[in-house]
Design brief:
Elements: H1 21-24, E1 27-33, H2 47-55, H3 70-78, E2 85-87, E3 92-97, H4 99-106, E4 111-116, H5 134-141, H6 145-149, E5 158-163, H7 176-180, E6 184-189, H8 209-218, E7 220-221, E8 226-227, E9 235-240, H9 250-264, E10 269-272, H10 297-309, E11 312-316, E12 339-344, E13 369-372, H11 381-394, H12 400-409, H13 428-435, E14 448-450, E15 454-457, E16 471-476, E17 482-488, E18 495-498, E19 505-510, E20 513-519
Parallel strand pairs: 5-9, 5-10, 6-9, 10-11, 11-12, 12-13, 14-20
Antiparallel strand pairs: 1-3, 1-4, 2-3, 7-8, 15-18, 16-17, 16-19, 19-20
Length: 520
């Protein structure tokens, strides 16, 4: 999880002769089973989940709803393996095995694949501590007036939050109305089940992280007349899947279990500010950068949630932007179907230094959109998730893909996105019009071919170029891969863009005007 700075220590240790080298070589594996029963019987999810599927024209009965065949799990246990996690969606289980045991397990007739949970060590970077004052700036940047004027609060939308902990959430002034009105429908602790529904015990300093995320999503303090999130009228389902004092890949297994639980209850929208790449206590569990390609098991699970269950997942991009050895988004922010959210500066709308960038090897763009956050993408994602809840309130028939497209198309750089800020900062009013079918979804912007090595542009006299981030250049070596971002003075009456070596495309942002230069 990318929400804290972790110090890594190297140490040497020894063990006595009671344990063999083979026993110490145990490794955790995802075990994928070959099949499930072909016939789907009974109702395996709630009526609320079936209603959601009817609304989105999805199959009511799905093979992924079926539990993993008990005979397969019994067979693993009979062979001496301890099953630590099970995913019905992935038709898989997690076990620990020595190399010899793993090789024998691969020969089992019911097993399709064994995938080791490994990688290598890399340190991680984390942003500065949470600052509650930024949320009003983020909402102002998104031009929240249209949502507020329409009285939209996400009412009737089921929202899930998967995070590190929700310590003292009922005591926060901005969250007291949610609890008083019964809008927090369920809370399950997948790390320590005994603490489910308990908000007054903490196991780590990060157990308030989910509380802060919830404030950014739905905070509303009527006494102080302060609104810190769009979705104050939504219903919430909370899941703690991450232990702040420990970092292990079992947290991903908890994440998948939480997602399956939320789907069974008909949750429509899920926000998570958790991400997995490096920084695990056991360095062998770290991912490699090239593995952030949407194929991890947690990425597969969230993609299934989007495609088969009709759930929109809003995921923080991560805070490794300054880490030259990593820098890119973490999983599951790398999954194609999720809405990945990065963080911008408030004044210039450029990428915050800590905000992770999209891998250049992906065939799709990440992040998708951005908004201001001073304290990490953990707190930009829930702001966008709150806006998404309001759009679902006004049009419940929107599919995850339609909702994602609306947020992209309402963003200030669309259609010229990049791997620093995606399509930019959404405009809440424009997104609302798109959700209601009022606005045209097409873009009049077309690329401008440029011969030579320079381009001159004169802003219209009197145009408010200081708005929407002022004057910015995103210099790129392809359509989406940024070489560098560059701020220019808003007082410029003439803008001269000189082509850099290797530069093929340049996005020129002048207030609300966006030009895409294609160097010939």
């Amino acid at each position: 999880m990318r929400v804290c700075t972790i110090l890594f220590f190297f140490w040497a240790f020894f063990t006595g002769g009671f344990f063999s080298l083979e026993a110490r070589a145990q490794q955790r594996y995802w075990v994928l089973f070959k099949d499930k029963p072909a016939v789907i019987t009974g109702h395996l999810v709630s009526e609320a989940a079936r209603q959601q599927r009817r609304l989105l024209h999805l199959p009511l009965a799905q093979i992924s709803d079926q539990p993993v065949p008990p005979a397969y799990l019994d067979s693993l246990r009979a062979k001496g393996f301890t099953v630590t996690s099970v995913s019905k969606w992935l038709n898989a289980a997690v076990v620990s095995a020595t190399p010899t045991q793993a090789e024998r397990l691969r020969q089992s007739s019911f097993i399709q694949e064994l995938r080791p949970i490994t990688g290598y060590f890399l340190p991680s970077h984390t942003a500065v501590p949470f600052d509650p004052q930024f949320v009003s700036k983020a909402m102002a940047q998104l031009k929240a007036e249209a949502i507020l004027a329409a009285g939209l609060t996400g009412r009737g939308v089921k929202v899930g939050v998967i995070d590190a902990g929700f310590y003292d959430a009922p005591k926060k002034a901005g969250l007291q109305p949610l609890f008083a009105k019964g809008q927090v429908k369920a809370y399950r602790d997948f790390v320590n089940p005994a603490l489910s529904q308990t908000f007054d015990q903490r196991e780590s300093m990060l157990d308030t992280h989910g509380t802060e995320v919830l404030l950014c999503l739905a905070g509303a303090d009527p006494k102080e007349r302060v609104l810190s999130g769009f979705a104050s009228g939504a219903d919430f389902y909370l899941a703690r899947t991450d232990h702040g004092n420990r970092e292990a890949r079992v947290e991903e297994e908890n994440f998948v279990r939480a997602l399956e639980w939320m789907d069974s209850l008909g949750v429509r929208l899920v926000n998570s500010s958790l991400g997995y790449g490096t920084g695990f206590d056991n360095p062998a569990e770290n991912y490699r950068p090239e593995q952030m390609d949407g194929t991890s098991f947690i990425a597969r699970a969230v993609q299934l949630a989007v495609e088969q269950k009709g759930m929109l997942l809003v995921i923080a991009a991560g805070n490794d932007g300054r880490n030259k050895k990593w820098q890119i988004v973490n999983t599951p922010a790398d999954a194609a179907g999720v809405l990945t959210v990065g963080a911008t500066d408030y004044a210039t709308w450029t990428k915050q230094g800590y905000s992770s960038i999209g891998p250049s090897f992906l065939p799709y763009l990440k992040p998708d959109v951005v908004c201001f956050a001073s304290s990490g993408t953990s707190f930009s994602a829930p702001v966008i998730a709150g806006l998404a809840a309001c759009l679902l309130e006004t049009n419940p028939t929107l599919t995850p893909q339609q909702l994602t497209d609306i947020l992209k198309k309402s963003s200030h750089l669309y259609p010229f996105g990049n791997n620093y800020v995606g399509y930019g900062v959404p405009n809440a009013g424009k997104a609302l019009e798109l959700a209601q079918g009022i606005s045209d979804t097409s873009s009049a912007n077309v690329p401008i071919p440029v011969s030579g090595s320079r381009f001159t542009f004169r802003p219209e006299s009197g145009s408010a170029i200081a708005e929407n981030g002022g004057i910015m250049l995103f210099r790129k070596e392809s359509k989406t891969k940024v070489i560098t971002q560059q701020k220019l003075s808003s007082r410029n009456k003439k803008i001269v863009v000189k082509r850099l070596p290797g530069e093929t495309h340049t996005t020129l942002q002048v207030g609300s005007n966006v030009l895409e230069l294609v160097w010939q």
